[in-house]
Amino acid sequence: DRYEILSVAHAALMVNCPVAHIQGGELTLATIDESVRHALTKISRFHFVAGESFAKRVQQMGESKDRVFNVGSLGVDNLLSCPIMSFEHLNNTLHGSLKHPFAVGTFHPVTLIPDQTIPAARAMLESVLDHNIHLLLTGVNSDPGREILADVFNDYATRFPKQITYVDSLGHVRYISAMNHCCFLIGNSSSGLIEAPAIPIPTINIGDRQRGRPRSPSVIDCSPEKDEIESAIKRILSSNFTDTLKSSDAAYGGKGAKDKIVDILKKISEDGLCSPKQFEDYLICK
User: Fold this and answer.
1) Domain spans of the chain?
2) Which residues, in sequence order, are CB contacts of 31 under 8 Å at separation 6+?
3) Fewer C-beta within 10 Å: the chain N or C terminus?
4) Would you identify the CATH topology of the domain 85-245?
5) Matching CATH topology for 3-72+256-274 and 85-245?
6) For residue 263, what pLDDT is reported?
7) Name one Pfam family in it (predicted).
8) CATH topology for 3-72+256-274?
9) Is the whole-model pTM more than 0.85?
């Protein structure tokens, strides 16, 4: 759903190169990713979705059900097959700056509600600082508004070096390892709704950036206000909430997506790969 891939898909379309789209049909109503994702669906000939509701949404856009496959989340697949660094090893790569308890913070621009970004980020940082929890804060993605947000993160990390470890990019293995060792994830990243529940660890999801995605019981949604974020932190740190994680099901399922995708692609004939797709009309009942 990243806009960077849209030009690649467009180039493939122009030379009749088949495109297979992973995790279409999902909603993120406050970001430009929403429009990009649906545009990719229409360019693509094959669709590997992460859930039945997503499959229905892709079909709603005129895609044949014979080309839509519910395989689960590739993000969860990557998470569960990723080697996990020990806390000591992870901390050594961060120059010994991490302290227990710590949270992982991942916060990106809210591209369709830009005025929400900076106040929400400040509220998140202030709330974590008030609870005396160390924050491992990851860098900002490349969305519009990243420079101002990165300046805010750098400012807080400079002023509170003993409480905030700011890393521009952890990379896949360190990020997943940090999630496995932290007490909760906080911010507005999709990793809090897709990957974190599969570990499982609690997530505090702030604001509207992920509005539209399904929720696992381990996710607490809150408005971008300091008092609501603080209440969510208190709730997560309670033993009652921690106990619910043991019996909760992750909304995006478990391992196996990549093997399913490979098996399906192997079975597609050359004619099926290159044949033009048809627009399927569906009767939508409200």
Assistant:
1) 3-72+256-274, 85-245
2) 110, 111, 112, 143, 209
3) C
4) Rossmann fold (3.40.50)
5) yes
6) 96
7) Epimerase_2
8) Rossmann fold (3.40.50)
9) yes
